[in-house]
Every structure is written in structure tokens, then in C-alpha cells.
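hi support,

uploading two proteins for the ticket. first:
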Amino acid sequence: MKTVLTNKNISIRTRRRALECYIEPILMYGCEAWTISKQTQKKLEATEMWFLRRMLRISWTAKKTNDTVLEEAHTTRLLISKIRKRQATFFGHVMRREKLENLVTTGMLEGKRSRGKQREKLIEGLTDWLKAGKSLEAIEATKDRKK
């Protein structure tokens, strides 16, 4: 795909669509179950910018800010919002099902907690993104598919 994505004879819009069709699905495979920390989010944003810089043939040594690269590509950062939207859809699907997946996703399993800092749960990341306040509000919102 490098020859297609870096070809200057093809419009930026077409190259961007090719990137979204062929490369982003591979990158986002299984993203519905990811817990995205700040570090992971930075890496995903850096990956998205790397794709755009390669597509526009901008060297990493060129002193161009990410904002100017985004302006040249006529786009904004979309990868994180796409991932979060997929996660919200998957979370709603799992919560409406009310089976074992529901217990695992919410983290409401019986037993002792492990030592050390507790892992971030999928529901915590989603409530931060949705600005729902508490995880219970997000769980209640999943009962209504439109929300």
C-alpha cells in the first residue's frame, strides 16, 4: 500500500480513504476490549500522525508541527474517537446481554483482589470518555440503545 498512499498523483482525500479502508481496520482489530491508558492513547495518536506524515511524504526530521500536518491532510485526529465509539457500542451490547461477559466487563467478580495497583477497567475508561460521572450511570444508559 506504500506506493498508493505516497503517490502524489492521487488526491489526498482518496489516499486518506484508502488508509481508512485498508490499514486502520488492521490497527483497530479487537479494540473493543482494549483499556486505553494515557500512554496507549499517546502511542495511538503518534501512529495516526505517522501514517499522515508518510502519506504526505513529510520527513520526521522536518520541523512541521502536527497541526500543520493535519491541515495539509485536510483532516483531524479521528482514531481515538473511532475506537471509543466502537467500545461504547460493544459495551452496550455486552451489558444488554446480562451473561458472563457482563460480569467480566464490569469487574464485579467475587473473590479477593490482587495485590498492588488495580488494573484499569474498560468501564472506567468509557465513563471518563462519555463523561457519565459514575460507572452505574453508564450501565443504566446501556439499557436504552439510542443513548
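and the second one:
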Amino acid sequence: MATSIAARISRKAVASAFSAHRHVISSRCFATEAAKAISPSSDQVKWDYRGQRKIIPLGQWVPKVAVDAYVAPNVVLAGQVTVYDGASVWNGCVLRGDLNKISVGFCSNVQERCVIHAAWSSPTGLPAETTIERFVTIGAYSLLRSCTIEPECIIGQHSILMEGSLVETHSILEAGSVVPPGRRIPTCELWAGNPARFVRALTHEETLEIPKLAVAINDLSKEHFSEFLPCSTVYLEVEKLKKSLGITI
């Protein structure tokens, strides 16, 4: 009786030990297969994800950011986007250049939560690119699509500029303005409303204040810029140049 009980206990112990050993082997095999599954392929495009910002390449198009431009950490730049010297793109903005080019000119600023996009083509026959030239201020929560803003303009908060619209130099759009497709805002004028309508002509003194606002925001962006490591896409061009010249460092 005691012998049979001991034999039964030993069989159970052997069975449990074998089961545990098999579980360990299967876990190791699964871990090995999982490691193989997630290991990066040699054909995979290598990209630098440093967590400071979302710079998203699309096909052959890679967003370009100047060395002294400030782009906030949670901004999304995708595709054909160029941010020039001294420009600033503030928190929460999305610049999506998947269909056409987007450029933010020298010392211009795109403030919080703006969305900038560009269509394949403009129904008005005008250029479908979204161009923001130098010393332009884009107010927060604005939406720009395939429009052109000439130098030294102010676009008020919550404004919408549709395809083919043109804002000529030294002009101001009041907050909440909606510019329909193909509409032209003449130089040195103040427009407002939905749809945007002429309000009055700007004085010479008012036009002189427009670039000063852009410079003041540029100065403020430098304080924010100093909190982050200098990070732009210029190093990609340097790497290409080094590779073409056969330089290895």
C-alpha cells in the first residue's frame, strides 16, 4: 500500500516537473520567435525618432527645418514642408504636405493649433501650394489650405483661408475671418467677417507695426528654443554630402 502510494506520488512529481520543463522550453521558443518577428529588417527605412517632434517623411519628401527655426515638440510636419530661418511653429500645429508644398517663410510664425494643408490643384487655376512668406503672423486655431500670404501680414485667430485665396502684403485679417476660394485681399487693407469683406484702409503707422509683431514672436521663440536640444533636418543634407564625398568620421 505504502509502496503504491509512493510510486503514485513519484509519478505525479515527474509529470509536473516534465510539464514545467516543457512550459519553460515553449516560453523560450516563443520569446525567440517574437524577437525574430520584431527585429528590424535590413530593407526598412531608417529614421531618427528622438521624441522631440514628429517629422514624418512621405515617400521621397522629407520635411526641412532650418537650424534656427523653432518647432514645438508636439507639432506634426509631414511631407513637403519647409520651415525657413527664424520661423516658428507653435504647440499643436499640423502642417500636412502630402499633396503639395507648404512653406513657412523667414521670421514668420504659426501659432497654436493651426492646421495647414495643400490640395493637388486649385479650382481657381491659381497655385495649389500653401505659401507663407516672411514676417507673417498666423493666429491660433487658423486653417489654411492652398493659399498665398505675402510678406508682412497678420491673420487673426480662428481664420479660414480657402483654396486659391491671396492675402497681399501689409494686410490684416481680423479674427474669425473666412476668405472664400480665389478671393484676393488687396495690399494695405483690413478685412473681416464671414465671408471676409473690406473694412478700411490701413495707415502707414499700422503697416509698420506688422513686422514688429513677427520679430517680437521670433524673440519669444528663442526662449522656448533654448529649452530643447538643437534639432533640425539640416544634418540629413550633411550626411548626404559626406556620403557623396566619401568622407567617414
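thanks. also noticed: The first helix runs from residue 2 to 38.
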